[in-house]
Structures are given as structure tokens and as C-alpha cells.
Design a protein that fits this description.
about 75% helix, about 0% strand, disordered C terminus
Length: about 210
């Protein structure tokens, strides 16, 4: 849809706000605005928005995290109430149809295992393992480990509940166009680039000293 580019922009804005916090350049306005904007574009973004709220809360920006999370919750609840009052499901049909046949057919945790054994799902799994390792990296600060945990959980939730472009047989869906998973790829790959570049710069600084 036309909101697709805005969805990617929202995800990038949230990641940028978290990176700014890690670089000691935290902006309350940026954090709240990016979370709210991200969550209002598409329902899929809400997982990243709420994980960002948790990130800022644990980093000590509790008031801003609660305000942003409260706005997101109020907006979603209000729209769901509007739908229910008009005799519709609490979630839009456009969101419900993205629940694929694999999610309906198997146990949720089994879905992760099955997808991880496909070519596209394996790349999700490799990224998850990469960020899982960073969570326990002894040289990282708490904030950097927390960002890695956010990316790991976001990837896991998408692999668990998102619409991955794979049939239960392991074949790609030709009618899908990969557009619904672009936001999670953008979030994960940009996070990977940031972590890799930060590590490279850190090594250069240590070598100079």
C-alpha cells in the first residue's frame, strides 16, 4: 500500500532514536514521536514500538516510555473499539488475513523450527543467533546489550507470528512480493550494520592508542 514507505521510515526513526540514546544524545521528543508514528502506520510495527518503549524504560527514561506506550495503547484500543461497535473484529481484516496457513496448522514454537529450516527462514534464524550472542557480549554496555535483545525479540516475534513469504512446504509465495516483511529486514539489517560499524571503529581507536 501507499503507507509502505512510511512504515519503513517509522522503523528507521525508532532505531535512530535508540542509537541516539546509546550515543548519549537522547531526545525525549524524538523517542516519543518516533514510537507513536511507527505504531500508527501499520499494526506490524507495534511490536517494535513497544520493544522500544521497554528499551527506553530500562535505560532510565521511564516517563517518556510510559507516555509513548500509553499513546500507542490508547490509539489502538480506540480504533479497535470503533471496529467492534460497528460489528467488525477488533483487528482489521487486512491484518487478520496475514495469519498464514503455517501459523494455523502447527504449534507456535514448531513454526519457528519449521521456518528456520527453509532458505529464507534460516537467514532470520542466523540474525537471531547473531544478536543473541551480542546480548551476552562481555565488552558491551548494558544499553548495547539491551538493543541487541530488542532486535532478537523482534526477529523472534516476527518468525513466530509474522507473515513470512514461505508456504508450509518451504516454497515462496509468488503473489506476496515480500512487502510485508521488509520492515523487519530493514530494522534487523540496519541494526547489524550499526553494530558492525561500531565494532570496527572501536578496534581502530584501540589500535591507535
Amino acid at each position: 500500500g501507499m503507507e509502505h514507505s512510511a512504515q519503513l521510515l517509522g522503523v528507521v526513526a525508532v532505531l535512530y532514536a535508540m542509537v541516539r540514546e546509546l550515543e548519549n544524545k537522547y531526545s525525549p521528543a524524538l523517542a516519543i514521536a518516533s514510537i507513536v508514528f511507527c505504531s500508527l502506520i501499520r499494526y506490524e510495527n507495534i511490536s517494535i514500538a513497544l520493544l522500544a518503549c521497554l528499551f527506553f524504560f530500562l535505560q532510565g527514561h521511564r516517563r517518556d516510555a510510559v507516555v509513548a506506550g500509553g499513546i500507542v495503547f490508547a490509539a489502538v484500543a480506540t480504533f479497535s473499539l470503533f471496529l467492534v461497535l460497528h460489528g467488525l473484529p477488533a483487528l482489521p481484516v487486512s491484518t487478520l488475513v496475514k495469519t498464514d496457513n503455517l501459523q494455523q496448522a502447527v504449534h507456535p514454537l514448531a513454526r519457528v523450527y519449521l521456518l528456520a529450516n527453509t532458505e529464507r527462514g534460516a537467514f532470520f534464524a542466523l540474525l537471531m543467533l547473531f544478536f543473541a550472542g551480542l546480548v551476552f557480549h562481555p565488552e558491551f554496555t548494558k544499553g548495547r546489550r539491551l538493543l541487541s535483545a530488542v532486535v532478537f525479540v523482534a526477529l523472534f516475534l516476527y518468525l513466530e507470528y509474522g507473515h513470512v513469504n514461505i508456504f508450509w512446504t518451504g516454497e515462496a509465495d509468488p503473489s506476496y512480493f515480500q512487502r510485508y516483511e521488509s520492515y523487519i529486514w530493514t530494522f534487523a539489517i540496519l541494526s547489524f550494520i550499526y553494530r558492525s560499524e561500531e565494532r570496527r571503529v572501536g578496534k581502530e581507536c584501540r589500535s591507535r592508542w
